[in-house]
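Dear colleague,

Thank you for sharing your sequence with our group. We've completed the structure prediction you requested, and as agreed, I am returning the results in plain text so they can be pasted directly into your records. Please verify that the sequence below matches your submission; if there's any discrepancy, let me know and we will rerun it promptly.
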Amino acid sequence: QVQLVESGGGLVQAGGSLRLSCAASGSIIGIFDMGWYRQAPGKQRELVATITSGYSTNYVDSVKGRFTISRANAKNTVYLQMNSLKPEDTAVYYCNANIWAVAGRPTDYWGQGTQVTVSS
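Please find the predicted structure tokens below.
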């Protein structure tokens, strides 16, 4: 069974930084696109950033220049470095990965979510 485990959320003041990590484990053959999404209270889940297996990245406009997504393929891990945080970045952050596991075909998996709270 494949699992995604996130870490690194917390409470930070506006202007501060946090680094999220998400590690995939299980019987994994390969990992394709990885990404981070977030969901604020009363809002729909939105895409924050994605990174392909070839390290191409994509960001939502509101985080460009402040957030950086990266991955360590040898560790099956994706990171999100968040700088210059704003109160509007407050949300539960979820990692997502398209994973080809031993048991079947490539499938999207989700982490359990980690809370990020930015105080003003």
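Summary note from our side: Residues 5 and 64 are 25 Å apart (CA to CA).

Kind regards,
the structure core
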